[in-house]
DNA sequence: TCCTAAATCAAAG
DNA sequence: CTTTGATTTAGGA
């Protein structure tokens, strides 16, 4: 009878590609973004296989990070100095593994314009009038928490891999998308005018330096500017949706921008 | 079998 | 650490 040993099952290569391993790591983090070192740690903590030959697989992992559009580099905030950038998942890459295989996707995720940068993330947020409202990391969390939930290993300490599709219900990525909640009238108060410089300060180094700060881009004319004072407590505001069921221009604009994203 | 995603090796910035 | 290229390996229809 075979017994566990150095070549035992637990030391076999887990049935996950580096891409899925990385996606798991990022998704499992509270802020939905991790540094390279964090990703290494996540993998090594869970899979003994990857506690060896680190030079080899870590090089491959790094290659994946740069090469695949599904991974987005997020600049550090100046109040969180340290080594390396953060890595997050691209907002539109949520259905990467919907075929249930974590070894090989049906198609490699490619961004529309070929290049995917943090700017894409910012633009996405901006389109949703969320730019001034919440930090990038929270955005990623909201955006991904539901749709990528099933990437998570059932337990944090796996000695051998378990195939997720056996014990995790698959759900459409769009199903649990909570943008509506985020944009609900209860969460916003409406203000006139453009977002303040302070509001923009959350979103990466472009607006960071206190000197020579470029003026914030004007918001699109057709989108109202929704600003939630930060970090002030929220107070319910008068709803903008009208009684007869039709949306105000406000809501329509938001709906349109959301529909573009889905 | 074929297509191409993923892994590997590794140089260069 | 990050990006890129070249090449090989291998998943899966």
Automatic annotation (TrEMBL):
Bias type Polar residues, positions: 235-262
An example Gene Ontology molecular-function term: DNA-binding transcription factor activity, RNA polymerase II-specific
Localization per Swiss-Prot or TrEMBL: Nucleus
Residue ranges of domain Fork-head in the record: 13-107
Predominant location: nucleus
Gene3D superfamilies: Winged helix-like DNA-binding domain superfamily/Winged helix DNA-binding domain
Keywords: DNA-binding, Nucleus, Transcription, Transcription regulation
Biological process, per Gene Ontology: anatomical structure morphogenesis; cell differentiation
DNA-binding positions: 13-107
Disordered: region residues: 232-262
GO CC, alphabetical: nucleus
Protein name, UniProt field: Forkhead box protein B1
Source organism: Hypsibius exemplaris (Freshwater tardigrade)
């Amino acid at each position: 009878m075979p017994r566990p040993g150095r070549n035992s099952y637990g030391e076999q290569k887990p049935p996950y590609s580096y891409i899925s391993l990385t996606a798991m790591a990022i998704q499992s983090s509270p802020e939905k973004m991790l540094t390279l070192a964090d990703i290494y740690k996540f993998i090594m903590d869970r899979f003994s296989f990857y506690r060896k030959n680190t030079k080899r697989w870590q090089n491959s992992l790094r290659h994946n990070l740069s090469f695949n559009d599904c991974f987005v580099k997020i600049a550090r905030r100046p109040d969180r100095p340290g080594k390396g950038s953060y890595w997050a998942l691209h907002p539109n890459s949520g259905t990467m593994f919907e075929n249930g295989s974590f070894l090989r996707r049906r198609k490699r995720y490619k961004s529309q314009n070929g290049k995917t940068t943090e700017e894409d993330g910012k633009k996405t947020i901006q389109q949703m009038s969320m730019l001034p409202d919440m930090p990038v990391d929270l955005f990623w969390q909201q955006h991904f928490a539901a749709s990528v939930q099933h990437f998570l290993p059932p337990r944090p300490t796996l000695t051998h891999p378990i195939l997720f599709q056996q014990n995790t219900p698959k759900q459409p990525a769009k199903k649990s998308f909570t943008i509506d909640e985020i944009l609900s009238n209860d969460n916003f108060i409406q203000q006139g005018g453009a977002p303040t410089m302070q509001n923009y300060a959350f979103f990466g180094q472009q607006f960071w330096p206190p000197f020579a700060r470029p003026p914030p881009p004007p918001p699109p004319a057709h989108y109202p500017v929704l600003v939630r004072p930060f970090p002030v407590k929220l107070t319910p505001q008068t709803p903008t949706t009208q009684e007869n069921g039709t949306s105000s221009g406000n809501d329509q604009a938001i709906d349109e921008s959301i529909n573009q994203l889905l």
